[in-house]
């Protein structure tokens, strides 16, 4: 074992449904505006332009079951998503074999400091301050594809305090999961442990301390996240 000048950070591990072992996280890729109605509400054209991605940090993924309201923002928004966890990677992965690289799927949220993101966008600056803050991606246990298959359709809903805020269907994705994997592999070398957040439907909006968010996706169950 090599010696390090300081103690190296612990790897990020996510729970797996029905398994005591953890899924190790390498990178987190997030696709932007992947549902037409959400693209419209964010002021974009929903035509199939090439997809775009941003990144969160591995330790932004948080399986603790709660979301601490972050500092430096008065406008924090929920974005309900399905996460895709990869077991293998590579470059130039064909669309028709892309799903062979998927280990499983999970319920997740891409929490966003919308005010800080908006200020950065106006100045043409990167979004990390609005997207990659601590514990900005609550996530549930990973459900292995060997158990549930590869969901390509199914109702997605997010409620806040019991009121429906987001609803859609996985089949409304502009870029489907195999296409996302293939496109990313043309630009990055994907590897085991990579996680892709696959986009959110319309209806994003703010939360406050004391709210309770609940995300459900048909076939993946539900995930309840209180805002603390």
Automatic annotation (TrEMBL):
<dbReference type="GO" id="GO:0018773">
    <property type="term" value="F:acetylpyruvate hydrolase activity"/>
</dbReference>
<dbReference type="Pfam" id="PF01557">
    <property type="entry name" value="FAA_hydrolase"/>
</dbReference>
<protein>
    <submittedName>
        <fullName>Fumarylpyruvate hydrolase</fullName>
    </submittedName>
</protein>
<keyword id="KW-0479">Metal-binding</keyword>
<feature type="domain" description="Fumarylacetoacetase-like C-terminal">
    <location>
        <begin position="28"/>
        <end position="228"/>
    </location>
</feature>
<dbReference type="InterPro" id="IPR036663">
    <property type="entry name" value="Fumarylacetoacetase_C_sf"/>
</dbReference>
<dbReference type="InterPro" id="IPR011234">
    <property type="entry name" value="Fumarylacetoacetase-like_C"/>
</dbReference>
<keyword id="KW-0378">Hydrolase</keyword>
<dbReference type="GO" id="GO:0046872">
    <property type="term" value="F:metal ion binding"/>
</dbReference>
